[in-house]
Amino acid sequence: MLNNETTLHDFRARTYPLRVYSGTNALVELPRELQRVGASRALILCGRSVRERTGLTQVIETLAGDRIAGVFPGISEGAPAECLEEAAAMARKLQADALVAVGAGSVIKGVRIVAMLLGEKRSLLEMATVHSDGAPPVSQRLMAPKMPIFNVLTSPTSAQNRGGSAARYRGSAHHLEFFDPKTRPRAVFWDPKALATAPVTLARSTSFEVYWWALMCMGAVRTSNPLVQASRHHAWQLARHAYPKLGDVDDTAARIDLCAAALLQNRDEEDGGRPWSCQLLARAAYASAVGVFNHYAGVTQSRGYAAFAPAMIRELGVAVPEVTRALGNALGMCLPSQCDATELAEQVAAQVTSDFQAQGWQTNLHDCNLPATDAPQLLKLALRNFNANHDRLLDRHREAMLSAITSVIAA
To answer: Among 99, 125, 102, which residue's Cα sits nearest to residue 114?
Structure first.
């Protein structure tokens, strides 16, 4: 994270090739994209509900004709390792030459890992980021070529064009992390009919991640380079305007605006912003939410975001008062220029709580029946999160994080 304003113009940015097709009949461009890469045996991957409760994959099969070799409908929430291995086995059997992900976060992240399995011909454990106590995590270098990926979104998600992924795992780590920029998609599709297939509850859940990240990144705008500042300001503007409109199933513009906000969050990363570790409060809340999501069935990542952000602001806001103040400003608070750091943290935490509740989110996990005695284990999982703790910064705040985690899960 940049801490000195004199460094704002010292940065590196990179741009990856990507085609975005948005709006009416955007999906009709998919066959042309498959033809562009010479794909004649593409495999569609999705969740069971998309396959069985919508006609979306059937529409894609009709559009692409004999360029589709089959459909794997078994990627479930959190992208469990076993279903990704089954998908890779099916792709090998069909001799697939492209992957079409149809869904939101879990499916899109999972398909990237399927491409890694197919390209690297190694086990998940051999490809995953290595964590060692007291040392920075090491991301494995995955050098083999990867088959082209195309992402058809059913709900807004920042997973849409990233190179990193995570999978649920039954071993002691609870989840495995991977990074391979060669698994970025060739194209993404924001087709209104595809986006309309997600129930409002699902759209609100996945889109809250976009909203949440847009807000948290506003805590670190002033110390970001000019390109990142532009992405963060506009992502927050789009998300704050569109998210409350998701209750209207006919408002496809809101869903597309949230897709655009998510894409801007990824551009933020490409322009050197490191949004997933842009400031301490975001890191701590994100890592804790991911730990709960992977440890307990039925607790979504969005639910964790809503619960842990206010708690981490209360416990850690005093350590980064400038970040805390910026979050309050983003929510329209009129904060005095001089304010006790503890009082500032409490006021902003209360405002964030109020905002999330107004959006329909509970701001603790007291109803989830999570044992308070699990707090130390959840802290350990949080500290193993590569995106949030790649430099071990969170290790310095163990006690405050443990206090926040305990307050969130214990009634």
So the answer is: 99
| End-to-end CA, the chain | 34
- How much of the chain is in helix, strand and coil states, percent to nearest 5? 60, 10, 30
CA distance 41 to 367: 47
For 152, the 3-state DSSP assignment is strand
Residue-wise pLDDT tens digits, 277-315: 999 999 999 999 999 998 898 899 999 999 999 999 999
Sign, CA torsion 105/304/265/353: positive
Which domains does the chain possess?
A: 19-199 (3.40.50.1970), 201-409 (1.20.1090.10)
User: Which SS3 state, helix, strand or coil, does residue 174 take?
Assistant: coil
With beta carbons less than 8 A apart as the criterion, state whether 190 and 138 touch: no
Q: What is the CA radius of gyration of the chain?
A: 21
Residue showing tokens 């087709």: 191
DSSP alpha helices (H): ranges in 76-141?
Answer: 81-94, 105-120, 124-127
Q: What kind and span of H or E run contains 45? A: strand 42-46
**Reported pTM:** 0.94
Distance CA 61, CA 238 (A): 33
How many angstroms separate the CA atoms of 411 and 395, rounded? 26
Could you give the count of Cα atoms lying within 13 Å of 293 in the half-sphere of its Cβ? 26
CA distance 80 to 168: 4
Whether the pLDDT of residue 22 is over 60: the answer is yes
Neighbouring C-beta atoms of residue 62, cutoff 10 Å: 10
